[in-house]
Amino acid sequence: NGGALAKALQMDMGNSALLEQLVNTNPRLQQICAAALEEPYDEMLLEHFLFLRSAKRGEYVEAYSHCERACACFQQIFEKDTSWSMPALHTLNLSLRLAAAAADKELAASGVKDSKLQEAARVLQRSFQVTITDRSPLPVSKKWGALGVINTLFKIYFSINNLRLCQNLIRAVEGPAFPKALNGETVEGRRFKLSELVTYKYFVGRLSLLNSQFTRAERELSFAFERCPRHMTHNKRLILRYLVPVRMALGVFASAQLLQKYKLDYYIPICRAVHAGHVSAFEAELAKHQRLFIRHGSYLLVERSKLIAYRNFFRKVHELHADKTTRLDVSTFKRCFNATGIEMDVDEIECVLANLIYSGYIKGYISHQHGKLVVSKGNAFPPLRDVLGES
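Request: output the structure for the sequence above.
Response:
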């Protein structure tokens, strides 16, 4: 019974009285485990008990060492066994990640520069290899447990800022031998857990943003947000932190009602400023919430929307001309900027225009000799989704 084994291996073992006995007494654990179980189950259980006892005592570095050995023992078992024990593997993987994070905090407090999370990632790589390379028939394949392992590795790689290793995981999932069920499909009577799919899509969406793949980022993050259960408001808010700015980059602005619902009110004036082309208002809001965005790892993404604000500003000025002329004086833009409280000279404005033209936000060119912006007759300001597209 994989579920029962997983519950027994949880950090509280589902039995607080037994855990207290482990902490408060010094039983002959090795002899007891050896008498009760055969190898390597006896060693796995012994190390797991020692891990729990050390964790309960607040000795996190020692706890991690025992947890790592327990995981290594179980991996030997899991590699030769069928997929029934998959829930237990995920439970031990979670314990390993949490133990490593706690150990790193203890080491940092002592002034020791070490990364147990990095060590944990190396241990988990074996779990990843065992699941991803399993050749059992698909209905009973260990590959159905790969996403859980991958998500744990994603969390570690994001924690230690080693994101390049994430690409190897994604390539394995997108390979021909992996179950084609990443959008919730049922394949040969099996499907991935919704929680695992949501977590996977969330991390792939964030990685896509870092690679400037905005269309894919929106697709992955939208899936994660829409499939995340309604009562998981904290998780839905985490997803929206990145989905809101990526949609803004594609010309889709979140409603104030949605942002208020998930306590993301700070995005409301930013969305309004970008949509209206109010560059000064956008700069003020970005500066106001700079620390927050840096902490969330979204500052550069939100800052990118400044170009969208400029693009919308120039488009509005263009639309103010009743004849929709294709030639606009740069000095006209200067006067409009001054009217909104932004002091820019002609050279600075031409620099912004050149950047927008180069990036595809404006179709046209600058006539420096005549001091004019010359735009396309048909589609001077292409839809943002067409500009960014799929990289």
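The two ends are 46 Å apart (CA to CA).
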